[in-house]
Amino acid sequence: MIPILDFQRFDSDPAGFAADLGRACRDTGFSLLTGHGIDPCAIQSVFDQADRFFALPLPDKAKLDIRLNPHNRGWAAQGTEALDEKSGLLDRKEAFNVGLDLEPTDPRVLAEEPFRGVNVWPDLPEFRGVMLRYFNAALRLGRRIHRAFEADLNLPTGYFDPHFTAPMATLRVLRYPPAPDGQGIGAGAHSDYGSITLLMTDGVAGLQVRPRGGDWVDVPHVPGAFVVNIGDCLMRWSNDIYVSTPHRVLPPKGERRSIAFFLDPNPESVISALPGTGEAKYPPVSGADYLRSRLDATYMPAGAA
Fold this sequence. Notes:
This protein has 305 residues and is an alpha+beta fold.
């Protein structure tokens, strides 16, 4: 149901790889990507630094509360997100977000453009460097995957390039504490907001996907492979040719950790039906306006948890 695709094949057989990826994008919107070229040591370093951050005392993490930051950066405490708006269940997880790294003197920061803020960092010596190196590697990979989308959708090579020059990308490390009673939900049923998500897990079970017209199924773990899924923005962009599928994380019996890289387009990019996809089903919207509408529905106000 969720195919395993070797990204190295995109170099030797670009049309064949793009066709296989396109089938996955039209079916469940999920695939498992091997051969991606990101160093396993870099991935392990992110897990190690995330562990150090989540082990910090609560007051140290609270200084970086994401609800105090208008640019989607910082720490999300357990119980401050409700991804499944229908159930009302609060997610049993904590997370930390890193965005495009900008200097305080950057004109976009000074102009207070949407999602153009500075990152916030914990007092951990190696944390910033490790996270930014991984962020940049994942961004390069995400851009290359869009080249495969171009081939599948019969778009000119480089069509997506102008939309990902300074994207609203987010690196998010997550920790799901043990839930021996099995109560609640790790992450409620939801679809992702952006173009694509690159997810690396530690192998602990819990991630499930619900295909259209089907029931929940487990996403298998392939060591070293990314779980790649289509987000709502790309589904809208492709005029519903690609599908963004609901998924969730069950409360794990033991601690579960993951690294998610959410690739959204530039904030000023206009998301409208791609050429050749037929009559537009959605009105045009900027990348920033679309992302803000989704985030506002996710977070509880500070002090409400």
